[in-house]
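Could you join me in thinking about how sequence relates to backbone shape in a protein? We need material for that, and I hope you will provide a protein of your own picking. Label the sequence line and the structure token line clearly, so we can match residues to local backbone shapes. Would you write everything just below, so we can both look at the same thing?
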Amino acid sequence: MSAIELARAEIRALKPYSSARMEASGGSVLLNANESPWPSVMGGTGALNRYPDPQPAELVRRLAALYGVTPDQVLVGRGSDEAIDLLVRAFCRAGQDAVVISPPTFGMYSVSAGIQDAAVIDAPLRADFSLDVDGLLELVTPRVKLVFVCSPNNPTGNLVPVAEIERLAAALADRALVVVDEAYIEFAGTPSATELLGRYDNIVVLRTLSKAHALAAARVGTLIAHEEIVALLRRILPAYPLPAPCVEAALAALTPPALTATRVRVAGLLEARARLAEVLQTYAGVREVFPSSANFLLVRCADAQSVYRQLLAAGVVVRDVSHHPALPDCLRISVGSDEDHRRLLAALGRREEAA
């Protein structure tokens, strides 16, 4: 059985919408899309009066090279959020199928499942935030079509070893897709789960240019999977998912000089993460700073709500994750600039030794 057979039968049989850019793509006189023949009065670069390519060939090629895969294994869309939504809609029948998540984790997995009326099965992380592979597998029933694994995990910051992901993929062959969200992998310095694609057709990897490549506003995400899965998801992808300016920004970020600059920035951020983690532990009210393989720190406070309000009053916004049962009195703090950290520490008040 191929992993593609796990998808909804009606999606596999669906005849996709044929956009104007898919028709006679080599033509030079474009009279098939009811576009304006005049450039935008807003000016700027690019022909904004024309619809963009649904999957820009050069962008797909550069992303494939960046991630070490082939272009036909790449689907580009509006951030990882769109990829998550596409997967749930393609593989989960409303009211019948289910996904597995391992909380505390990224909230969009359960939101996308809820929109599709797919059940959400929780396979909680262990107390040390490691993935309980055996416990997760015990919860997988024939209803489960997708298992989401976030590595490094948001908001805990810990990695799931590729060997553990492989255990899942092997155990769930012909049963479910293992979707590995690697939004923060550039900050971890470890191999990607894409290395498993050659052995398992039920592996899907999500990557993004939002974090390490500093393109959060451009909303460029990549889904990497076997060719059949990519081709299936293209059937339900909106006709023109990426605006031309976003494509231009992504292409600029993927040039050799830009990639070199990104590596330098990531190295600097890792040093800043280490310094921030060390100094935070000296502040009154901070009880624990958890190890992180991402561009943020999970911090346990004596009273997270009080610290959150204190920081907000000083104009410093962090993420309150203390509502999750596994994260009492925890805040998630992004690693920022030196000035950001100065203001953060000033807003925290006093060090322990000054208490």
About this structure: The mean pLDDT is 93.
